[in-house]
């Protein structure tokens, strides 16, 4: 019999991590590669946050903490939810994990029985379907095309709900499209959800602070207080605070679910790093002004990338509201042939061509459940981005 569990056959390694690794390997082999695959800010963690961590080490905050977070961090999270989202949570409604990814994983494993359905709007963050599959659930993928601005509509939601639906996963601003839901968008979805009390909402607000042109962030438990009791509001410090490596994510939700998440965590990883938790307290309670400064840079890069990509024959790039991704269509390149004589049949072929011909590493849309598109992360230096876009334009011009 096979040694590895069948469970593992249901899932694949993260395709975004795979692209990043491939780009790194090519670089190490001496190739001139620009990696646009990674989903992390190129900015360093602010100094006040680093100092808080150093202080934690020096003062002996180096022991086990509460499994699902220190009191100090939970208090900072409660204050954040109140201040920024108008949401009231008590201490037993807050959980802290090793990244938002662990919170999500724990929540799904703690709630899904075999065959329970989870509605996932596509394009989606690559980990949602695979975590659902690991947890014995059934991902129900709902395609949200560009004509719906890559967002789930009330009609599409209604059509996807069944008596077996346990969760709807929302992600705004979105990875991979950068699309964001306004309060009115969420209002329409809430009206559908109110008719279906079996459906819970896992809202992934990881990119909350990365919004441009004055777009107002909204989260569903605030938009519809009647959904508060069945919503897990997930967030973290990775993206806005440039703390991807520190591994701190958190959520607010109903006390019984929060308790179940802690139970899972108590038998797997226990508490997230005590030092990272101390740093996250400073991130949430400390000065927030650097976020706006970073966003000004992100916005400039977004506008540049959108403008340049729209000059590439065969590509079409929308302007996203937030996050640090664009999700251009490569429909116009499909069916063409490369100078090496290879036919471009899919977005996988297209990104392979970009990497081989021009050393630009992007991620194929098929990884996110909507083709033919590809994802570019503009969380990299403006100079590298400009060069990458020049190369992409050249690659598209070379297609026949
Ligand atoms: N959710 C989305 C949409 C993401 O893009 C990411 C990271 O890429 C995460 C969650 C997980 O973030 P972390 O585990 O670093 O908190």
Automatic annotation (TrEMBL):
Record has Transferase as a keyword: yes
Cofactor(s) for this UniProt protein: pyridoxal 5'-phosphate
Domain Aminotransferase class I/classII large: 32-392
Pfam family, one: Aminotran_1_2
CDD domains: AAT_like (cd00609)
One Gene Ontology molecular-function label: L-aspartate:2-oxoglutarate aminotransferase activity
SUPFAM superfamilies named in the record: PLP-dependent transferases (SSF53383)
Chemical reaction(s) catalysed: L-aspartate + 2-oxoglutarate = oxaloacetate + L-glutamate
InterPro entries: Aminotransferase_I/II_large, AspAT/PAT-like, PyrdxlP-dep_Trfase, PyrdxlP-dep_Trfase_major, PyrdxlP-dep_Trfase_small
E.C. designation(s): 2.6.1.1
Residues annotated as signal peptide: none
Keywords: Aminotransferase, Pyridoxal phosphate, Transferase
Gene3D superfamilies in the record: Aspartate Aminotransferase, domain 1, Type I PLP-dependent aspartate aminotransferase-like (Major domain)
Family in the record: Belongs to the class-I pyridoxal-phosphate-dependent aminotransferase family.
PANTHER family cross-referenced by the UniProt entry: ASPARTATE AMINOTRANSFERASE
Entry-linked NCBIfam families: PRK06107.1
Name this polypeptide is given: aspartate transaminase
Organism (species): Dongia sedimenti
């Amino acid at each position: 019999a096979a040694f590895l569990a069948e469970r593992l056959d249901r899932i694949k390694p993260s395709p975004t991590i795979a692209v990043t690794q491939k780009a790194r390997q090519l670089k190490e082999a001496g190739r001139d590669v620009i990696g646009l695959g990674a989903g992390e800010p190129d900015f360093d963690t602010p100094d006040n946050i680093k100092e808080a961590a150093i202080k934690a080490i020096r003062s002996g905050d180096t022991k086990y903490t509460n499994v699902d977070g220190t009191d100090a961090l939970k208090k900072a999270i409660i204050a954040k939810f109140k201040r920024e989202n108008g949401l009231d949570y008590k201490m037993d409604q807050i959980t802290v994990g090793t990244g938002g990814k662990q919170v999500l994983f724990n929540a799904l494993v703690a709630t899904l029985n075999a065959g329970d359905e989870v509605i996932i709007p596509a394009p989606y963050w690559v980990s949602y379907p695979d975590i659902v599959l690991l947890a014995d659930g059934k991902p129900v993928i709902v395609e949200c095309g560009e004509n719906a601005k890559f967002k789930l509509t009330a009609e599409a939601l209604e059509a996807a709900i069944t008596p077996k639906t346990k969760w709807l996963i929302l992600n705004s601003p979105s990875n991979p499209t950068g699309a964001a839901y306004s309060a009115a968008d969420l209002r329409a979805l809430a009206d559908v959800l109110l008719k279906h009390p079996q459906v819970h909402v896992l809202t992934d607000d990881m990119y909350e602070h990365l919004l441009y042109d004055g777009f107002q962030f909204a989260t569903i438990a605030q938009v519809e207080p009647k959904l508060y009791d069945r919503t897990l509001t997930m967030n973290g410090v990775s993206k806005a605070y440039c703390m991807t490596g520190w591994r701190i994510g958190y959520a607010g939700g109903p006390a019984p679910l929060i308790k179940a998440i802690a139970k899972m965590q108590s038998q797997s990883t226990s508490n997230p790093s005590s030092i990272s938790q101390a740093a996250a307290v400073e991130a949430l309670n400390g000065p927030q002004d650097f976020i706006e400064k970073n966003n000004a840079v992100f916005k400039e890069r977004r506008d540049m990338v959108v403008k340049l990509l729209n000059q590439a024959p065969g590509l079409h790039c929308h302007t996203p509201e937030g996050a640090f991704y664009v999700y251009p269509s490569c429909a116009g390149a499909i069916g063409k042939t490369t100078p090496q004589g290879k036919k471009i049949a899919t977005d996988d072929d297209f990104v392979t061509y970009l990497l081989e011909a021009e050393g630009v590493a992007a991620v194929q849309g098929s990884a996110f459940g909507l083709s033919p598109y590809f994802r570019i992360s503009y969380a990299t230096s403006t100079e590298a981005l400009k060069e990458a876009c020049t190369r992409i334009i050249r690659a598209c011009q070379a297609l026949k």
